[in-house]
Amino acid sequence: MSNTDVDGNPQEPFDLVRYQLDELVLVKLRGAREMKGRLQGYDSHCNMVLSDAVEYIYDLGEEVNSNPTVKKSEMVFVRGDSVILINPIN
Amino acid sequence: MSESAADVKKESSKLDPSKFLSEIIGNAVTVKLHNGVEYLGKLQSIDGYMNIVLDETKEVINGNIGRTYGDVFLRGNNGKYLQYLKLPF
């Protein structure tokens, strides 16, 4: 499916991820977890390597306002199957 | 006989899902995930795995608008459906 592209928007979804290499991303994961970190690498399964990563673990099924448990890690590998969404942080 | 077959083919290509999806790029959509969360935004791109990128995205949890994101990449396996909204964006 080649998407006609008028104004330089990504033509396929993984383009967005590629543009975020070496940038900060927020990754929402299964199990009410989130991970922020600098994207070092990824593949088509959404396996990712993040540096200077911070993991936020929420108590509820959905993070509403509860303050999460925070875990820091210098370098972390995230298995793609637990990824829900990837969001660039400016 | 061959004519009717051609008609069927014509008809099925009208309903081709990937054609539909490529036609609605740039429009407002909601994407519902299996976990019940919905994302409302402008469809930027989609691939054969149903990986989706939305722009100007609002997260809707239990009908309440939660966080907003600029761009969002949604991994295809989490998607339940994508709804085309006839809204101007």
UniProtKB/TrEMBL annotation, chain A:
Domain Sm as annotated: residue spans: 12-90
GO terms under cellular component: spliceosomal complex; U4/U6 x U5 tri-snRNP complex; U6 snRNP
Keywords: mRNA processing, mRNA splicing, Nucleus, Ribonucleoprotein, RNA-binding, Spliceosome
GO annotation, biological process: mRNA splicing, via spliceosome
GO molecular function, one term: RNA binding
Location(s), subcellular: Nucleus
InterPro entries in alphabetical order: Lsm3, LSM_dom_sf, Sm, Sm-like_LSM3, Sm_dom_euk/arc
Xref: CDD domains: LSm3
Keyword Ion transport on entry: no
Organism domain of life: Eukaryota
Subunit annotation: LSm subunits form a heteromer with a doughnut shape.
Family label: Belongs to the snRNP Sm proteins family.
Role, per record: Binds specifically to the 3'-terminal U-tract of U6 snRNA.
Protein name: LSM complex subunit LSM3
Species, as recorded: Pichia sorbitophila (strain ATCC MYA-4447 / BCRC 22081 / CBS 7064 / NBRC 10061 / NRRL Y-12695) (Hybrid yeast)
Taxonomic path: Eukaryota, Fungi, Dikarya, Ascomycota, Saccharomycotina
Gene it is expressed from: Piso0_004401
TrEMBL record, chain B:
Sm domain segment(s): 16-88
InterPro entries: Lsm6/sSmF, LSM_dom_sf, Sm, Sm_dom_euk/arc
A Gene Ontology cellular-component term: P-body
CDD domains (UniProt xref): LSm6
Keywords assigned: Cytoplasm, mRNA processing, mRNA splicing, Nucleus, Ribonucleoprotein, RNA-binding, rRNA processing, Spliceosome, tRNA processing
Alphabetical list of PROSITE patterns matching this protein: SM
Gene3D superfamilies: 2.30.30.100
Pfam families: LSM
Location (main, coarse): cytoplasm
GO molecular function terms attached to this record: RNA binding
Compartment annotation: Cytoplasm; Nucleus
Domain of life: Eukaryota
GO biological process: maturation of SSU-rRNA; mRNA splicing, via spliceosome; tRNA processing
Record family assignment: Belongs to the snRNP Sm proteins family. SmF/LSm6 subfamily.
PANTHER family according to UniProt: SMALL NUCLEAR RIBONUCLEOPROTEIN F SNRNP-F, U6 SNRNA-ASSOCIATED SM-LIKE PROTEIN LSM6
Name this protein carries in UniProt: Piso0_004969 protein
Organism: Pichia sorbitophila (strain ATCC MYA-4447 / BCRC 22081 / CBS 7064 / NBRC 10061 / NRRL Y-12695)
